[in-house]
Write a structure and sequence with these properties.
Low-confidence stretches: none
Oligomer: single chain
Radius of gyration: 13 Å
Strand content: 35-45%
Mean pLDDT: 84
Order of helices and strands: EEEEEEEE
Distance between the termini: 17 Å
Length: about 110
Amino acid sequence: MFRTRRLKENEPKLIKVKSERNLNVFITKISCGSIHSLLLSRDGDIYAFGENNCGQIGNNCFTNQLTPHKLYSSVKFIDIVTHFRYDISIAVSVKNTFYVWGKCGERRY
């Protein structure tokens, strides 16, 4: 499998998250995995970025994402979690349904 270089920064940087209408998004929670991060907005939307070798940022491919992008879903979420060692993402919807994507065991979803 072809892997691109790791996305590393040595200094903190401001990350701007914009909505489709180019409005600022208010982030209420951040979950940092080993090589990707999830952001949960006040509106219940999930934004993701980072390395994506197992589909863990949910953009329906395995392309790395340098800036946060919205996961397109009609579902609204109340919680997110990643794992510091594994390439997995988990979210809980407002209807208390769990969603899992990325490297789940030895499979990719």
